[in-house]
């Protein structure tokens, strides 16, 4: 949030008004927002900017920041509609036993995860294992509070 009412009066209220004046929450699910961009958007719009993580195969986000979370650099905690875990990637030196922050490939399963690629069983089996976990290929680490940070691909 903008800590300076003077800047709101001089600049940011005009920007908000030109954009309809009703923006309260914005979300991003593409590439991670840089800390500078995230802070700029929060100041400009005076609202919450939430980052989430998902992919086409998950039909929606598998993690999302909580409204009111002002920390930067993570994609939030798991969606209650799925399970999320990190799996060891020894060839990249990532392990879910790393301390203080477990790291590994992000995997998800649950009713929001797709059932497979259309008429392509081979590719489906490459990303969904025998226990129905979708292997995203992205690397994450668990932060305190159960929040996920994307660190590699």
From TrEMBL:
Pfam families: AMP-binding. It comes from Aegilops tauschii subsp. strangulata. InterPro entries: AMP-dep_synth/lig_dom, ANL_N_sf. This is AMP-dependent synthetase/ligase domain-containing protein. GO terms for molecular function: long-chain fatty acid-CoA ligase activity. GO terms for cellular component: endoplasmic reticulum; membrane. SUPFAM superfamilies: Acetyl-CoA synthetase-like. Residues 7-118 form the AMP-dependent synthetase/ligase domain.
């Amino acid at each position: 949030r903008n800590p300076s009412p003077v800047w709101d009066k001089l600049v940011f209220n005009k920007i908000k008004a030109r954009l309809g004046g009703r923006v309260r929450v914005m979300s991003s699910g593409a590439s991670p927002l840089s800390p500078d961009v995230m802070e700029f958007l929060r100041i400009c719009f005076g609202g919450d900017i939430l980052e989430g993580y998902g992919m086409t195969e998950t039909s929606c986000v598998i993690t999302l920041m909580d409204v009111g979370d002002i920390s930067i650099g993570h994609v939030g905690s798991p969606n209650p509609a799925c399970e999320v875990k990190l799996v060891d990637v020894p060839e990249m030196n990532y392990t879910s036993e790393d301390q203080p922050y477990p790291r590994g490939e992000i995997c998800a399963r649950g009713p929001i995860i797709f059932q497979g690629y259309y008429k392509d069983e081979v590719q489906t089996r490459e990303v969904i294992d025998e226990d129905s976990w979708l292997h995203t290929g992205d690397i994450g680490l668990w932060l305190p509070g159960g929040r996920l940070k994307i660190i590699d691909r």
